[in-house]
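To close the chapter, one final illustration. This time we ask the reader to focus less on the individual chains and more on the assembly as a whole: which components sit near each other, and how the overall shape emerges from the parts.
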Amino acid sequence: MTATMTPFRRETEVGRDGFGQLLHAEWTKLRTVRGWVRGLGLGAVLMILIGLFGAAAVELPNEASAVPLGPDGEPVRDSFYWVHQSLTGDGSITVAVDSLTQQADTGPGRQDNVTVPWAKAGLMIKESVEPTSSYAAVLATASHGVRMQYDYTHDRAGLPGAVSAAAPRWLRLTRSGNTVTGYNSTDGSHWTKVETVRPATLPATVEVGLFVTSPDHIESAHQSTTSSATAHFGSVGLQDGWQGSGWVPDHVGGGPQSAGESTESAGGFTIRGSGDIAPIVGGIASPGNIVPLGNFLVGTFAGLIAVMVVATTYITAEYRRGLIRTTLTASPRRGRVLAAKAIVLGAVTFVVGLVTAAVVIMVCEPIAKSHGFTMFPVDLWTELRVVVSTGALLAVAAVFALAVGAVLRRSAGAVALVIAAMILPYILATSPVLPAGAGNWLLRVTPAAGFAVHQTVQKYPQVFTYYTPTSGYFPLSPLAGFAVLCGYAVLALGLAVVLLRRRDA
Amino acid sequence: MAALHAEWTKLRTLAGNAWLLLAVVALTVSVSAGVLTVTTCSTGDCGADAARVSLSGIYLGQVAVAILAVLAVGGEYGTGMIRTTLTAIPGRSTILAAKAAVLIAAVLVAGTVAVFGSLLAGWIILPGNGFTEDHGYQMLSLADGPLLRAGIGSVCYLILIALLSLGVATAVRDSAAAIGVVLGLLYLFPIITQMIRDPEWQRHLQQIAPMTAGLAVQATVGLADLPIAPWKGLGVLAAWAVGALLIGGWLLRSRDA
Amino acid sequence: MTIVAHDFPSLLDMEATIEVNGLRKRFGSTVALDGMSFTVRPGQITGFVGPNGAGKSTTMRVILGLDAVDEGAALIGGQPYRSLRRPLSHVGALLDAAALQPSRTARNHLLWLAHSQGMGAGRVEEVIARTGLQSVARRKAGGFSLGMRQRLGLAAALLGDPPVLILDEPFNGLDPEGIVWMRGLLAGLAREGRAVLVSSHFMSEMQDSAGHLVVVGRGRVVADTSVAEVIEAASQGRVTLRTTARSAAMTVLAQAGATVASSDAATLTVSGLSSERIVALLQQNAVPFSEVSVYRASLEEAYMELTRDSVEFSSEGFDAPRVPALNDAANGVANQAAAKGAVR
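The assembled structure is written out below.
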């Protein structure tokens, strides 16, 4: 060895070490590739454009109307036909229902007997004759037996079975102060209590009566017709302090659907009514001009595709160019590299999704209103949740795509896999090809479960409709659906870390 | 002819392509079989279209076709091999045509197997699920005109998806972005259509959507209610494919490699 | 060799060495590394040469913790690479100049690397200046020529001001001016006391710049010695003679016990006799000659002889015979050189 040794002396300062530096490096990587920034921007623009298209493409002839809200703040329908009178103080009302039939327009000028499962006939104590006022009712239904319902959203089952002349149902409502108790009986002498409830508002003088109503006859997910129900009541008994002063026929809620009639006969009433006393749900049972919030965010699917392309390429591009070696030389702890990538990507896509969703809702809501649509009312928290969860949906989907990209190391296959895994199950679940049960199953076990975060409407078993994703209903709750998607992302990320550690770079 | 031979050799010698063609068959048949298994018909006139149900695997099978077609050019841009290709055969339209021809041949074979396999699965599974003469269904038979049309149309559909993907990939030059664009075109239309509240708009969207219109060729019942007639719908997809190829070809000619 | 567990030695006084110890690695049935061992010392350029497939790149990837080995270990200043904190401050590497995101600018490429080591944009500007990239730093790296990519790769390697540098084929794609520049830069880095490991196919470059040479073939070290010794071993005892009387000279020298080969019409290569003895013999026998010089092999020649039996893809066939009879002499040289390396 002939070279003279000069010991190496560093002249530059050594930088700081830590995970923060890794995050900083990955952020610099992400923001310095124009294609990726553009890709994320394109996703945001598509989300907004599709939202605008949905809000502005159709113009309804009518003015936007306020959705009627029930005592709980829920959007409700309140239209029926009844005979009623004002009664003060405590008391009881008793009646027997011995027939309930339903008719629908099944063709031009044709009426046929049909079964409308939630056609209702029974007794009601109501705050006033105004629609959406507080009430409690005990009633017989076409297919769901006797029910005790109050304030639109609450429902409790009583005696099962349909009513007929051979099997009448005796119903009784008793008011005592602020509570109303419903009873039912098969013979008028042996009574069972259904429930004691406390309606939101119960003034000293209430409206008490016999009502009939019948929601739309739903033939398929795409077809429904107006229906009416006719019920026969036996003689009405007022007891325990109430003194009758004569029954007045009337319909509540106006409109053609609440048209009806009543005829008094020997000690009884025959009443025909149409409409419903229930919360408003989406889908075919929903009035055509009511839009759930999630509708504007259908562009999220487009945003998702853009985000997933960028997220996959964020790692596969490094493999394609051999840049992954530079990355792993700079940061030899491989799990941390992937974690840093996931955090940076997740944070960026979260912000993009959140801001875009906020813009979409702020821009689209007024446009839809000016086009005659009525927003399905949701509280501020729900609105906030939808906006935040759109960001979270994009973020977790991006991390999922990143992880799949790290596992497969090929962009085309990885992108196709994540898009197909996220979006195809949704398409199949909403297409007529797949039976609804199988479709719901797909939306439970595939990453598409995550779309449940856009659910803003609630399911009510006491209202029949097709509870499908297109009308805003998912088989899983928003949180559970999101958890399924997170599960996929975590699994993929775990596999990616294991493989990244084990494989030669 | 030399270009055709060269492209055929490229397709043949890349192991991934054989797997993708196999995936076209496997994905199509397995998804079809899965959907068939869960589809039952317990009453007369249950509204299900036996051909559509049997061929539902195309929804997923087309993804593998898209990957195959996108990689035919995207893969070359990714590795820089496109320059070698363009040096060997300078006529750029010739290259695109040769690639298209080779893809058509490959997808024709894989697609035919996939469609035949799916129909076979339907033939085996459907009668057990209530698709019987009592409920107004006949055994699937290729002698049946509409079913034959659905089968041949589905193969054509896959071929057109390959051409659409080829055109998009040539225009975009990046495999990942091209897959995103293709699957976006296919999948976004039906989702947006569902959200539009106006039946007129829905019909228009269904008429121009490449997947919805293209798959109208699978319909064998309720033809009167289709937003677009079967062959006409396939024509819409063909228009998309030709448009993508023209744009791709124009960009290929006018751009530096 | 024992592995000393250092308690995070101060980066300022870090020992600038690479120790490669008994690396073995298989890819399926192919043996990529077959007991690769050598040490790279500070203060000089160590040339890392060998035919394609000899295991140079794999060894470099193993040193950098990118590839795992079945056996053996590689240490940087006594530590395995994966245990290093701020690794770019310990080792700078240029493996593949094409490993760039094409749409990212050169400056931004260096910037994310700097950020990963907790360094700022200031250091980026310094290495840009040192590698002469100022005018193109804000251009997309995808449009760079191979020469510019090499400069950018070198800039990345220098970012952490590391005591150890590992460069795979840094001369590839450089223009003559760039080669001179690179040679000067590497020499300067070595002078600063850094350990510089450079693989190259350009033997002339190695001959001029490398002080030490590690020659590998078939996954193992064939020779590990100084460049001067390799050349000496390859040229040992040979004398070049220019004469117009070839046959006379051959007869005279052969009678004296020398081995004589004719290179061309006027030149003979003589081994077995010193140049003084040759001059004396020719003068005694009145054989005319115009020049007698001690033969000095080029590194290229020496390398070809050293690696002749290690070439994986020779023109004669996929797997060339290991020791062709013709190459006995060359093998002798190789064995000598290897023996020397082992003694050191």
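Chains B and C do not touch (no CB pair under 8 Å). Chain B has a mean pLDDT of 86. With these observations in hand, you are ready for the problems at the end of the chapter.
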